[in-house]
Amino acid sequence: MEKMPFFVYNKRILDTQTHTEFLLSWEAPARKDPKRSRTWYITVGALSISAIVYALITGSYALAIEMIALIAVFVLFHRLPYHRYRVGVSQNGFYLDETMHAWSDLKNFWILQGADMNELHIDVKRGRDVRILIEGVDPIAVRDTLLGFLPQDPTKREKLLDYIIRFCKL
Among 38, 47, 88, 131, which is least packed by CB within 10 angstroms? Predict the structure, then answer.
């Protein structure tokens, strides 16, 4: 693994340790923080309390405990700050924090464009696919830069589970 230095948004820089010149770079959070309204919290709270009450009435104490644990995990998880990834594109490959993915290890890419976010998806030949928000840099510049190394798959769409998570603001 090559170590990637801290770098500046959308600037070509030279890493003095690895002699890697980044054609494009940015920093982005692991995921978008959804804006939840007071109505959302009231609705989710009412549904959660209803499920716990139903579980207690029907004698399903395990379900009640699981619901309480789920609520606790949700609250604790969403209070943590999101990790900010450092992303870079070079002639050698795609960098995500300190990990470099060689172009030969990647299949293709696609960009999900939403009303309030742009998300880059890169399909990896072996392993977990890469998903990263595009912030502080033009998504068209990201697409144009990546097209020099990977094909774009215009047929890809957001997965159903990802859509549900985004729609429900989870």
Answer: 38
